[in-house]
Amino acid sequence: MSPERSDPRPIQQILRQHTSMAGATLARAEQIAGINRSLRDWRDAPWIRDVRIANLRGDTVVVYATSAAALVPLRGLAPSLLTWLQTRYQIACTRIETKVRPAPQRTHGRVYRPPPPERKPSG
To answer: Measured between alpha carbons, how far is 121 from 70 in angstroms, rounded to an integer?
Structure first.
């Protein structure tokens, strides 16, 4: 290896060392992933595995669920989730935005995405 090159390092380490947009994006993704891993600490309920924090945008927590049924209990517990996020992660969010995003189906290690619905001809 030539003297001007350094030893290989994980890309996460390199991005964290730079105060660039990529570094900030990586830190935010890691924060959201950590929150998702600990959601069961907030509520250990069957529906929680169908819910994930997708984004933190301003004063809003964006939550995706695999079905509308998983959002029913979440909507009633929204104040509790916001308090938990503020206490545990110092996230000053005051609103929750929910969206249904079905999980992609997996077949033999590949992601299966169903074809888009056919459009009916107009006229």
So the answer is: 35
- Tokens representing 93 are 């969010």
Q: What is the DSSP string of 68-115?
A: HHHHHHHHHTHHHHHHHHHHHH-----EEEEEE-PPPEEETTEEE-PP
Each residue's pLDDT tens digit, 37-92: 999 999 999 999 999 999 999 999 999 999 999 999 999 999 999 999 999 999 99
Q: Name the helix (H) or strand (E) containing 51.
A: strand 51-57
Domain limits for position 20: 11-104
In sequence order, which residues have a C-beta less than 8 Å from that of residue 28 and are 6 or more positions away?
56
CATH number of the CATH domain containing 99:
3.30.300.180
pTM of the model: 0.67
Asked, for residue 57, whether it belongs to a domain, the answer is yes
Six-digit token pair at 107?
């077949």
